[in-house]
Design goal:
Elements: H1 7-15, H2 32-36, H3 40-74, H4 85-88
């Protein structure tokens, strides 16, 4: 199996170079929500609640981060920083994000 070809496939190819027709599959109709059936609306409710929870969580994280940034900028020595530009930019969001 140097070329990752099974012995079955080698025998099949030696028998006929034209591959056999593919198996017929049932066509997928409609969107996924329609295929789920009666639980579709319940899934929508769960996803909406999840999205709202995530939004609230991210808002709290951002609020906490801003409070932390304000405290560090206000009293850098209290937080173990010397107040220089390089030490203050560690806490500021930017293209590279917070540095560790």
């Amino acid at each position: 199996m140097k070329h990752r070809v099974s012995p079955y496939m080698v025998r099949q190819t030696l028998t006929s170079p034209i591959p056999p027709p593919r198996k017929e599959r049932a066509a997928i109709e409609g969107r996924a929500k329609g295929r789920v059936g009666p639980v579709g609306p319940a899934v929508d409710v769960i996803l909406e609640e999840y999205a709202a929870t995530q939004q609230a969580f991210h808002a709290k994280v951002l609020q906490y981060y801003r409070a932390l940034l304000t405290a560090v900028r206000g009293e850098p020595a209290r937080h173990g920083l010397d107040g220089s530009f390089s030490s203050m930019t560690v806490f500021s969001p930017g293209p590279s994000g917070p540095r560790s």
